[in-house]
Write a structure and sequence with these properties.
By secondary structure, this protein is an alpha+beta fold. The protein contains nine helices and 21 strands. Helix content is 19%, strand content 32%. The strands form six sheets. It has a five-stranded mixed beta sheet. The longest helix is centred in the first third of the chain and has 18 residues.
């Protein structure tokens, strides 16, 4: 009898407990778009009992309270508290919290106040990038982002600058930051992105903001957002410019030709700038006359440097319907440097397509093409920068006769023959008496061992 009584008591308690279960269900939507909010949090106030909305914005959970207070929250929206009063289903409409959106930022795996991320995230708009007419996106960023050092190491058109975010730090020996374009990390540099396609760029500088990219973000992350298509009639836009550039250094001694050196020496002696009392008169006159009489002299700087120019052309098309939006662009840039055989040419192409497939699925395609070619100054031309302008670049009959006559004068003064200054190379004639018109000029041809006017440092 006691066993039966105990069983009945347990059964009654179980029945009461089952009857106390209340099912809370409903849907959460956005007030401005009526779209369902995925991942909104619904919790019974004062407890940890709750759930989140599914793909359709729906939720459902059980509670033992007769009149529970339900708290609904979502990042960027005003939270709501709703008292259950026997409703069969809730239709909860969430309004955006404008103040919250300004104060809260999603970084990596969490959120922080915007005031706490001032030095961690830097942003620049696409219009600011385009306004700097640079051959590359990263060139346009120089000096515009705090904590980001962009250093152009060669100055040649199209050269990759060195980018360091908050000083050098690397776990792989490479200090370059990770480049992410429209959410996808790329293996190339910012040269592959057309400046006219950019909406905004963000630089993530601290561990929290770059955490989602793991070790790849150890050197910082540069996020690039490109333009998307907009619904409406197709619009075509064009942007182009042209510019010229010149070498800024002009009046320096390195640019003097042989005759100008002679004039400078004579003027300096006349006004007492140079004291030649310790120099033998015949040796001084030998060298001064050599400078004066050197034939067919070519100014190295004038020959090597020229007026450079850049031309850029970009065309884009934007448009589509409510369901399919397209943005496509083509870009071309050609830069001729200020030095001979120096230049940079590139082509950019991009297409972004966004489509709504039904009412719940969105899809997109992003394609980017790039081709670039950089021409740098050859090393043999770089040697010219160390040479004085005392001869032609390539021998003429007059320069050959001058070299041979100068050699004879040097030997008559007891100086070494010019051929003794020949370098240990098999390139070109090994004696000035074997020179032919068109042969490349070497400074030993005019005496490089204090026996002539050569010895300027080139080969």
């Amino acid at each position: 009898m006691k066993k039966i009584l105990s069983f009945l008591i347990m059964l009654m308690a179980l029945t009461v407990q089952v009857l106390a279960q209340v099912n809370i269900k409903g849907t959460v939507t956005d007030a401005s778009t009526n779209e369902p909010l995925i991942g909104a949090t619904i919790i019974e106030k004062g407890t940890t009992n709750g759930t989140i909305t599914d793909f359709d914005g729906k939720f459902s959970f059980n509670t033992q309270s007769e009149k529970p207070t339900i708290v609904v929250s979502f990042i960027g929206y005003l939270s709501q508290e709703i008292i259950y009063a026997g409703q069969s289903e809730f239709n909860i409409v969430m309004k955006a919290d404008i103040t919250g959106l300004e104060e809260v930022m999603v970084v990596g795996y969490g959120t922080i106040k915007k005031s706490h991320s001032t030095g961690a995230i830097a942003q620049i708009k696409g219009n600011d990038v385009v306004s700097i007419q640079a051959a590359r996106v990263d060139d346009a960023l120089a000096g515009k982002l705090s904590g980001v050092m962009i250093q152009n190491q060669s100055g040649e058109p199209g050269a990759d600058p060195k980018i360091q975010i908050r000083a050098a730090s690397s776990i792989s020996g490479d200090s370059n930051p990770l480049i992410v374009v429209d959410g996808f990390p790329i293996s190339g540099s910012l040269a592959t992105v057309n400046p006219n396609d950019i909406v905004s760029m963000e630089v993530l500088k601290d561990a929290a903001s770059a955490a989602i990219y793991g070790s790849r973000g150890a050197n910082g992350v540069i996020l690039v957002t490109t333009k998307k298509g907009k619904s409406g009639k197709a619009s075509i836009s064009y942007n182009g410019y042209t510019s010229i550039s010149n070498k800024y250094v002009k009046d320096i001694e390195m640019l003097y030709t042989a005759s100008e050196w002679a004039d400078k020496l004579e003027t300096g002696i006349a006004n007492g700038t140079y004291d030649i009392s310790g120099v033998k008169a015949e040796l001084f006159n030998f060298r001064l006359n050599a400078y004066k009489n050197a034939p067919d002299v070519v100014s190295i700087e004038e020959w090597l440097f020229k007026t450079g120019n850049t031309q850029s052309h970009d065309i884009s098309i934007n448009g589509g319907s409510e369901d399919v939006k397209v943005f496509a662009s083509l870009g071309y840039l050609n830069t001729e440097g200020i030095a001979q055989k120096q230049g940079y040419e590139k082509y950019n192409g991009r297409m972004n397509v966004d489509a709504n497939i039904g009412s719940k699925i969105k899809a997109g395609i992003s394609m980017n093409g790039y081709y670039g070619q950089q021409d740098i100054v050859p090393h043999d031309m770089r040697d010219l920068l160390r040479a004085y302008s005392i001869a032609p670049l390539y021998h003429t009959e007059a320069s050959i006769a001058f070299a041979q006559d100068l050699d004879k004068q040097a030997k008559a003064l007891g100086l070494d023959a010019f051929d003794k200054g020949v370098r240990g190379t098999s390139y070109g004639p090994q004696s000035i008496y074997d020179l032919k018109p068109g042969d490349y000029f070497h400074d030993w041809h005019y005496g490089r061992s204090y026996n002539g006017i050569g010895g300027t440092g080139d080969a």
